[in-house]
Write a structure and sequence with these properties.
The chain has a 7-stranded mixed β-sheet with strand order 3-2-1-4-5-11-10, with helices on both faces. A 4-stranded antiparallel β-sheet has the order 6-7-8-9. The longest helix has 20 residues. It contains 8 helices and 11 strands. The two termini are 24 Å apart. Helix content is 34%, strand content 32%. With 252 residues, it is an alpha/beta fold. The chain has 2 domains: 186 residues, Vaccinia Virus protein VP39 (Rossmann fold), CATH 3.40.50; 58 residues. Helix 2 crosses helix 3.
Length: 252
């Protein structure tokens, strides 16, 4: 994770919601899903939750709406600030801070659950950095606290090595916005070019951003979790959850 990762999300933050056909509907769906996981694993709650890759608040806002006491952190100060503002616009309190997930600015044993969703962890490009981040997530969890990760199904993607993603179309007051990605593979890593085509003067303006991911396999992440001190690791696939990415649960 580098300054270029922060720059990617600083630049994307104002238009991040356009990745979704309906961002508010996505907030509601993800709130139901993550709330159910937290309550099933930790009891009825509400719980103290850290979303350590909160972005503009897709998971954090929904969990706050479900009654949890949520704090957000994100590498991008622009994204974190927008998450707080979006929560406030919906009548919710969501304190946020700009922070690297490898160095979380919270006291030990502060949270019942830590969420790291939307394929955020694979921005860390080697096992040492992944373990460093996971250890700090474990540090801020209470005893037997719950870690919830979601990431792409890289076991499948490393075999298929796709070159692009299908276009996503979102409707705005100014017209349709088209979002898609190009992937450039380099062994276990890939550079991602993120494109948004935005209506402009009867044509299109192109917004292009670039970042890098480690296509982290299930086996590699499971080893990293063990090295960081987590136990009771449980992988949940989309076929059993209906969620769009694999989910990993682990306990402090």
């Amino acid at each position: 994770m580098t300054d270029s990762t922060r720059g990617f999300y600083d630049d994307l933050a104002p238009g991040y919601h356009l990745i979704f056909p309906d961002w508010d509907a996505s907030i509601a769906r993800q709130a139901e899903f993550f709330d159910r996981l937290v309550r099933d694993r930790l009891g009825p709650g509400p719980r103290r939750v850290l979303d350590c890759s909160c972005g503009i608040g897709t998971q954090a806002i929904g969990l706050a709406r479900r009654g949890h006491r949520v704090v957000g952190s994100d590498l991008s100060p622009v994204a974190a600030a927008r998450a707080s503002a979006e929560a406030a616009a919906r009548g919710l309190a969501l304190p946020t801070v700009a922070a690297d997930m490898r160095r979380l600015p919270f006291a030990a044993s502060t949270f019942d659950a830590v969420v790291c969703a939307d394929n955020s962890l694979p921005h860390l490009l080697d096992a040492a950095d992944v373990v460093t981040a996971l250890r700090d997530m474990r540090r801020v969890l209470r005893d037997d606290g719950l870690l919830l990760l979601t990431l792409r199904d890289y076991d499948e993607l490393r075999g298929a090595r796709p070159a692009s993603t299908p276009p996503q179309v979102s409707q705005t007051p100014d017209g349709r916005v088209i979002t898609f990605q190009l992937w450039h593979w380099r062994g276990e890593h890939y550079d991602l070019e993120h494109f948004q085509l935005v209506p402009s003067d009867g044509g299109w303006a192109v917004r292009q951003r670039r970042t890098t991911y480690w296509a982290l396999s299930r086996g590699q992440l499971t080893v990293c979790l063990a090295d960081a001190g987590f136990g009771d690791v449980d992988w949940l696939g989309p076929e059993s959850t209906g969620f769009y990415q694999p989910v990993v649960l682990a306990r402090r």
